[in-house]
# Entry
Amino acid sequence: MSVVIEINNLTKVYGNNLEALKGINLEIKRGEIFALLGPNGAGKTTLIGIICGVVNPSSGSAKVNGFDVQKEYLKSRAVIGYVPQELTTETFESVLATVTFSRGLFGKKPDAAHIEKVLRALSLWDRKDSSIMSLSGGMKRRVLIAKALSHEPEILFLDEPTAGVDVELRKEMWDVVRDLRDNGVTIFLTTHYIEEAEQMADRVGVIDQGQLVLVEDKDSLMRKLGSKQLTLDLQKPLKKMPKAIARRGLELSADGSQLIYSYDTKAERTGITALLNALNEANVKFRDLSTSQSSLEDIFVSLVEKKK
# Structure
């Protein structure tokens, strides 16, 4: 896939000497869903704001479709759809009028069929004549996405797109985002819902204190950093770890009813066979066992903690 967004040594320092971004380098491929994760104040919104031309960088450069976002603002902005984090839709205008007007702002000819298609995809068609003020927070969020899609952008930026949206509505919006990607739209999203990134993203970036901690293919990241745990439910609780198995890297649960063994899924040998033999020799009996894999949330927390 070709590169559609290119960011080189991007920095942003605000007036109070706050370094919001520190030398960001990033490439986004055409047609992918890229999720940027990070705690509050990490620099996610600032980065999106610079790429979309609403925030000026202190140094470095950003290009969209080969166009410099500062020197060739109109050309770069023409291919971008931007859904900001904050809801700014407290108006008396109807949904249809608002979305139609947004298309005109980009110099696009009227296209009632396209507007209808967008509103139907976002379950807004039945509310097309409703005033924006009368909508729920979740529906207002959908209107923002509809406005961003009104001019048929090639790249869609979603800054916390499902904030304040209930679970059912969130999953429906995930489906909309996947459909857009399948139709060739590149998606760049920031989110606090790590399950959102885990469900949708092709690649994941982690940003903390203005620095990119990593950028990785999601599945590769989970294979590299995700560990598995083997949990053994004991027949009889243990008061303490027997010396015979203490060196096996086991953890004893607080109530003594479980032994927990973490292992690397990539390792040539997991050590499970040797562990089970050692448990048998130590006369530690278990009635059941189960395995679990680290989630993206576990990995994210681990990365941020390591950086502190």
Notes: The chain has two domains: 3-223, 226-294. The first helix runs from residue 44 to 51. The mean pLDDT is 85. Residues 226-294 form a domain with the Alpha-Beta Plaits fold (CATH 3.30.70).
